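pinned: reference chain
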Amino acid sequence: MKLPSINRDTIGEDLSAGLVLGIQSVPDGMAAGLLALVNPIYGLYAYMTGVFSGAFFTSSAFMSIQATSAMALIVASVPQVTQSTSPNSSLFALALLTGVLMLAAGFLKLGTLVRFV
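pinned: its structure tokens
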């Protein structure tokens, strides 16, 4: 992981952009939680964990990591498809399976396939 160098000339603009994005992500994260048919605070948790893990583990400064409404709609349909009595258990299984697949793709160096998407 390469840490970016801080440019003293643009630190004001960087802080301003971070503040605006932080304020904007609150209603967006809550809306993603509502779309996923879970407590809106879970949408904020998804935003926070995605942004922090993306900041530490991505190699591109231009990559956008966020909870999207399309993914929230897919997550909302999981309990109906699995016909589970506890939607939290099926959502936990989905999150765990997604993490395992992402780790496997990383170990197999499949990230180069993203260029073709």
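why pinned: The longest helix spans residues 11-35. Helices lie at 11-35, 40-57, 69-82, 87-107.
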